[in-house]
């Protein structure tokens, strides 16, 4: 059921995640978190969600890495003597319990790519599939919902993202690039 | 007929790509210092990626999609050596000394020495004193691949 | 698959298997990324790992017949390059702060 490719990808993402959690050097953590992002995007790509994969690649591997780099360029990077962090035992326990809860819910999910599912409300899905091209003139139903039916919502999101980007650039310009 | 030639060619290309990527992986894991590693990363890895992408292009055939593959191949051929060069240059600016055949220090010692001599240019590479002192804090294990690695 | 000749199942199997092997090589690269010992080693390892990822995406695009994955591969190739150069540049210009 699970292909060798998926197995290798699982190992890849798992190693990256554990290394991100345990390494002591901040710069190394940033670099490996970028690698983790690459692995996650591969997962999305393998599950045929190219748009999500593209977002993960751009945000996770690109923007986040750059922002974190700028952050530690501004703050101090402490010298370290040991390679690994000593794990916090209660935190590990809490994370493990949470993981078990999440794993229990996995069996309730439908199979990936199951054509029989139309999520919870087939009527609404059918409505959009039928009316979207006529109502909005857009052939892709997802795009129609995103930019047509909930256009104001998307507009608000775009505004928030734009403001966040502006704020980050302003702060960075003052804090990093005009240093000395 | 032509179909089987295409299939065979694609499989051959992918196998070659896998081989060269394997060589590059071995190089990155086994070679003694950052400079030689960046060398293998820029050469063998680029060749491996190039072969595999050529195989993919062969499978896709003459379609508009293939243009993307060729573009990707071009990008990798340009950017991969450039990135390796940038990394090696950064290492040089930071003062990491290259490994030479007449010293058998591990790369950890090289790094410690680079940290020690960043300000002063005096410490002799053969002097194990400061390097050994700094390496004391690190958990002592001698399984570093740079150790016994003897590049033929 | 857009318009091209249909793939033989052999090619699909071979490409998926090759993608798995590439992922294994990428996992092996984590040794260098975690162990270091210098930041440049880590950046180099992640760069090689990113190239592997791009190749895997291209293989998946051919094997699954999903040409959109090639777009992601293009983005990756550029981001990967950008990341390596950005970190190297910072290291040089900040005088070893990073």
UniProtKB/TrEMBL annotation, chain B:
Residues 114-152 are annotated as: Disordered. It holds the Pfam family PhaG_MnhG_YufB. GO terms for molecular function: sodium:proton antiporter activity. The chain crosses the membrane at residues 49-78. Keywords: Membrane, Transmembrane, Transmembrane helix. NCBIfam families: CPA3_mnhG_phaG, PRK12674.1-2. This is Na+/H+ antiporter subunit G. It comes from Halovenus carboxidivorans.
From TrEMBL, chain C:
GO terms for cellular component: plasma membrane. The keyword Oxidoreductase does not apply. It is a multi-pass membrane protein. It is found in: Cell membrane. Coiled coil: none annotated. This is Cation:proton antiporter. It comes from the Archaea. InterPro entries: MrpF/PhaF-like (IPR007208). The keyword Cell membrane applies. Keywords: Cell membrane, Membrane, Transmembrane, Transmembrane helix, Transport. GO terms for molecular function: sodium:proton antiporter activity. The chain crosses the membrane at residues 14-31, 43-64, 70-92.
């Amino acid at each position: 059921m699970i292909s060798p490719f998926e197995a290798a990808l699982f190992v890849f993402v798992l190693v990256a995640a554990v290394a991100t959690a345990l390494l002591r050097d901040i710069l190394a953590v940033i670099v490996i978190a970028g690698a983790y992002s690459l692995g996650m995007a591969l997962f999305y790509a393998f599950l045929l969600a190219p748009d999500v994969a593209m977002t993960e690649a751009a945000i996770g591997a690109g923007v986040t890495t750059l922002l974190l780099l700028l952050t530690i360029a501004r703050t101090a990077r402490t010298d370290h003597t040991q390679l690994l962090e000593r794990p916090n035992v209660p935190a590990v326990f809490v994370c493990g319990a949470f993981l078990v809860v999440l794993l229990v819910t996995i069996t309730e999910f439908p199979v990936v790519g199951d054509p029989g599912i139309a999520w919870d409300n087939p009527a609404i899905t059918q409505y959009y599939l039928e009316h979207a091209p006529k109502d909005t003139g857009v052939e892709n139903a997802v795009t129609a919902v995103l930019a047509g039916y909930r256009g104001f919502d998307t507009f608000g999101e775009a505004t928030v993202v734009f403001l966040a980007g502006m704020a980050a650039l302003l702060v960075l310009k003052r804090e990093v690039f005009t240093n000395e | 007929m032509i179909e089987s030639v295409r299939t065979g060619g694609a499989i051959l290309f992918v196998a070659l790509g896998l081989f060269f990527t394997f060589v590059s992986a071995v190089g990155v894991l086994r070679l003694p210092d950052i400079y030689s590693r960046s060398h293998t990363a820029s050469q063998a890895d680029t060749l491996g990626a190039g072969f595999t992408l050529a195989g993919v292009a062969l499978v896709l055939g003459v379609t508009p999609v293939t243009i993307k593959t060729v573009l990707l191949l071009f990008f990798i051929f340009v950017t991969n050596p450039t990135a390796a060069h940038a990394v090696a240059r950064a290492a040089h600016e930071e003062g990491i000394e290259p490994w030479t055949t007449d010293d058998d220090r591990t790369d950890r010692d090289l790094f410690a020495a680079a940290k020690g001599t960043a300000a002063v240019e005096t410490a002799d590479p053969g002097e194990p004193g400061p390097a050994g002192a700094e390496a004391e804090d690190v958990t002592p294990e001698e399984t570093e691949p740079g150790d016994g690695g003897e590049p033929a | 698959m857009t318009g091209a000749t249909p793939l033989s199942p052999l090619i699909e199997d071979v490409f998926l298997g090759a993608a798995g092997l590439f992922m294994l090589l990428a996992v092996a690269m984590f040794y260098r990324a975690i162990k270091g010992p210098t930041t440049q080693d880590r950046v180099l390892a992640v760069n090689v790992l990113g190239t592997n990822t791009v190749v895997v995406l291209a293989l998946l695009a051919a094997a699954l017949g999903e040409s959109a994955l090639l777009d992601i591969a293009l983005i990756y190739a550029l981001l990967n390059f950008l990341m390596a150069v950005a970190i190297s540049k910072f290291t040089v210009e900040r005088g070893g702060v990073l």
